[in-house]
Task: inverse folding
């Protein structure tokens, strides 16, 4: 069976849903292909519930990954309409102006993308600001009322007492500091890009006629006519289009390119895939935020069940990055039942770069992920600094820091670099912000150009966080939706 469209979008994650919704709204005949379930609405559960991030959950790809030598973990990625944005904690913070300046890509300066950040949102707290939108599909707000956990104000007061500036709007592109976390939630319920872009008021008759969603449809490989991509082959169907946009996420997109013969020659041959177009950067050179969690005991009441997980964050400069290369994020809800609240300590501009490689042409075989975290002296130094700042915040708030018996570092470990490194190694995890696995640029390792077209392959673009040259200094959820908005204009230009 084969169907034809104007555009095929592979992947119904944050970027893919925004892209497909905008295209259909303009009358572009669009197919949206999703490997996961398109019926189960993950948003129906409180955003504080992160059950879908546990291995074995139907909505989670749960990729195995190596973080550092001797430290492996399972990485959650969304397998449903909305992608990872349908199972995450609702942290919705934009990349900062310095990120776009670092990337230095035509058409992708902060001023260039600001209209797309504004277009996607309805910010209920700062709707009168000229850097925010007031009519977009996604409602953005900061924790308040029953969504605000009792630990939040003491955390912010402790940051102020330690001399850190206030940052009441983390999406304003201002200097880093301490402030509430913007979230895409309504009454404690997550609103993913799927809900926002694939539901009324978008669902007019014309819109519905233009969009076809294929659920449970794992993309095996791209289809070619010579050097032009003409669509995608799934298990039981082929979808053809004048243009194909891969938006399967920063793991799924490079994996699909590799299965289709686009990528590093050695990786493809090792997986038994014929080389169609060698692009060394596919799956290589990506980055993510390494993180560790510091448990705390505040003695304050437990948060309301609907309180969002990530309440407030301190973004700060480790000494070399005024835009803020460290983050201390207050989680009111733990990632395990009945555990204490946590401070997540993360390096936001890591030097270390990862590798991703498929192991076979079969999409059922997960790719190998090697994060190669903390390989640089700078990354190790900054991770120590983040943990030590978090410990200072706990002291300033008057809270008991959970000790070694509860998973926290003992005082003597905090004061000793070698011992603290050992504790970090034993607790290291990932923020699940993988970016740059099919990066934009013009150099030899670039995969797409600023128009998101894959170098050397006609009819093919990539549109998700895999195209970012490096992980932004803030979590990429908002930037993923922005990429989908930007891609919609590029595709119909």
Result:
């Amino acid at each position: 069976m084969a169907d034809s469209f104007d555009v095929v979008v592979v992947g119904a994650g944050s970027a893919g849903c925004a892209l497909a919704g905008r295209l259909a709204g303009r009358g572009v005949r669009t197919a949206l292909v999703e490997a996961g379930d398109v019926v189960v609405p993950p948003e129906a559960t409180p955003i504080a519930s992160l059950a879908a991030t546990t291995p074995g959950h139907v909505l989670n790809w749960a990729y195995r990954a190596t973080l550092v030598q001797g430290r492996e973990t399972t990485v959650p990625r969304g397998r449903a309409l909305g992608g990872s944005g349908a199972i995450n904690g609702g942290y919705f913070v934009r990349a900062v102006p310095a990120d776009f300046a670092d990337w230095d890509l035509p058409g992708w300066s902060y001023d260039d993308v600001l209209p797309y950040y504004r277009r996607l949102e309805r910010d209920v707290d700062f709707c009168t600001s000229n850097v925010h939108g007031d009519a977009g599909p996604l409602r953005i707000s900061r924790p308040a009322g029953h969504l605000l956990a009792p630990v939040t104000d003491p955390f912010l007061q402790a940051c102020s007492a330690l001399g850190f500036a206030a940052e009441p709007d983390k999406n304003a592109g201002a200097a880093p500091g301490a402030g509430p976390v913007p979230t895409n939630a309504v009454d404690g319920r997550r609103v993913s890009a799927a809900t926002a872009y694939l539901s009324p008021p978008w669902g007019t008759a014309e819109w519905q006629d233009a969009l076809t969603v294929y659920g449970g449809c794992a993309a095996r490989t791209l289809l070619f006519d010579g050097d032009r991509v003409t669509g995608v082959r799934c298990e039981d169907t082929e979808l053809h289009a004048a243009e194909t946009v891969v938006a399967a996420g920063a793991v799924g997109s490079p994996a699909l390119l590799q299965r289709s013969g686009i990528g590093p020659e050695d990786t493809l041959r090792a997986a038994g895939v014929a080389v169609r177009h060698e692009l060394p950067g596919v799956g290589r050179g990506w980055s993510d935020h390494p993180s560790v969690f510091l448990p705390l005991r505040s003695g304050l009441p437990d948060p309301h069940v609907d309180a969002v997980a990530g309440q407030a964050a301190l973004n700060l400069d480790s000494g070399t990055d005024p835009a803020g290369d460290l983050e201390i994020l207050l989680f009111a809800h733990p990632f395990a039942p009945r555990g204490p609240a946590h401070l997540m300590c993360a390096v936001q501009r890591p030097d270390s770069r990862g590798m991703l490689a498929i192991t076979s042409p079969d999409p059922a075989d997960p790719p190998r992920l090697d994060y190669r975290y903390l390989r640089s002296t700078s990354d190790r130094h900054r991770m120590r600094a983040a943990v030590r700042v978090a410990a200072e915040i706990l002291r300033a708030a008057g809270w008991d820091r959970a000790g070694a018996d509860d998973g926290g570092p003992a005082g003597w470990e905090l004061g000793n670099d070698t011992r603290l490194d050992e504790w970090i190694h034993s607790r290291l995890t990932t923020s699940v912000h993988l970016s740059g696995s099919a990066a934009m640029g013009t150099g030899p390792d670039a995969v797409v150009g600023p128009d998101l077209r894959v170098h050397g392959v006609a009819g093919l673009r990539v549109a998700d966080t895999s195209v970012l040259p490096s992980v932004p200094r803030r979590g990429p959820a908002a930037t993923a939706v922005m990429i989908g908005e930007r891609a919609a204009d590029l595709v119909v230009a």
User: Anything to note?
Assistant: The chain has a mean pLDDT of 91. The longest helix spans residues 377-396. The domain at 1-59+76-143+182-286+359-365+434-493 is CATH 3.50.50.60 (FAD/NAD(P)-binding domain).
